[in-house]
Amino acid sequence: MCNNIHPTESAANGVRHAIRSISGLPACAGGPGRRLSIVYSVRTQMYYVHMTRERIFAAAKVVLEQEGIPGLTIRKVAARAGVSPMAMYRHFADKDALLNALVEDGLAAWESLVRRLRAQDPMQWLEQLTEAFLSFALEQPHLFDAAFLLPAPKARQYPRDFMAGHSPVIAMLMVRIDQARAEGRLGDQPALEIALSLSAMAQGLVSMYRANRFSDARQFRRLFRTAVRHCIASFSTRGSDDERITPPSAGGPGDRPGLQRNCARG
Which residues contact 173 (CB under 8 A, 6 or more apart)? Predict the structure, then answer.
């Protein structure tokens, strides 16, 4: 026995009814015109739900960018999206669900940047990775915060998620570390241990910069690169004189360090 679908019923019920109608199963009274009307209504509802969710998510990213993590509240996001706080829960079960979505968005942006790195030499790739991390932190701070600083329940956990390969970037980093170890350029410490040390140092320095512990961005860039260079050298089998990331010159904040090998000793 078929029941008519009322416009106020859920989109999910409408989808199931539309599928039955299109599949040739028993349809409701009203003929083909009625069935087409139902399909159109369901698609309209689904489009509205999708667009409302996207509007809420876009509003959350704006609030995060403008007010930071402390300002990211349900009320502020709802006001920015033009919906009531209660209406938000139709699209995100709770604030944790919204935080999880923001983290995934930030991590996707970070992964996209890393996949563009083109260095074939593993040590040069490490250099490019740390430069990309620095640029990501300074040039896209709201996405950086979403990826690395939001206290989301589903944020990736050390070491379990990384050992399981749930972080594509860490997986790529560990491949390069293993390559450098196979070439005798890094010591025999586990790749995950090296990756964690490098990640922790880089993220910690960014957190210090956000807390105004550096005088300006230029000084921060210089000290960030120096610290990274020493961190990588501490795992190197050749020492900082044989294989090192050259500290930037005093030319300006846009200078890029270069990985060099000591020709006289190499």
Answer: 126, 129, 191, 195, 198, 199
The model carries a pTM of 0.71
Give dist(CA 193, CA 163) in Å, integer. Answer: 11
The pair of structure tokens assigned to 160 is: 């379990």
Distance between CA atoms of 164 and 46, rounded to whole angstroms?
36
What pLDDT, in 10s, does the model give residues 23-54? 444 445 455 555 544 444 444 444 344 468 99
Classify residue 7 by burial, with Cβ atoms within 10 Å: 0-12, 13-18, 19+: exposed
Contact 244, 260 (CB under 8 A): yes
Q: What is the DSSP letter of 5?
A: P
Domains in the chain (CATH in brackets) are 11-92 (no CATH), 97-261 (1.10.357.10)
